[in-house]
Specification:
The chain is α/β, with parallel strands linked by helices. Helices cover 26% and strands 10% of the residues. The protein is built from three helices and four strands, in the order βαβαβαβ.
């Protein structure tokens, strides 16, 4: 299933996604630009961090209502210089939607 996503630029409206699913998407979705996995209770910091490190072209990430996602899972994007100004093929995250992610604080410690 995951090998079919290698050419996709956007993946959205996915339900019942887990960290295991995100790991597969991250491994095979190196050209992925947008990922919308909001409202999935099986998504946690581990899956999000795998996307941060394995999807270097990701520009849009929506993890709204993913209650297991915290600052820790999102720090990977920032540690890579991923927000508006990444260098040398690093991810350049332009839009991050975290609505109702209660574990995400106002300040990410990087």
């Amino acid at each position: 299933m995951f090998s079919q996503i290698t050419s996709h630029k956007t993946i959205s409206l996915l339900f019942q996604i887990t960290d295991e699913s995100l790991c597969g998407i991250a491994t095979h979705g190196k050209n992925l630009r947008q990922l919308h996995v909001g409202s999935n209770y099986g998504v946690s910091d581990y899956g999000v961090s795998q996307v941060a490190y394995k999807c270097p072209h990701l520009e849009v990430l929506d993890v709204s209502f993913c209650y297991k996602v915290s600052n820790y899972g999102l720090e990977g994007f920032f540690k890579r210089g991923a927000v508006d100004g990444g260098k040398d093929g690093q991810c350049v995250l332009k839009y991050l939607r975290i609505k109702d992610c209660a574990k995400v604080g106002y300040c990410l410690h990087v």
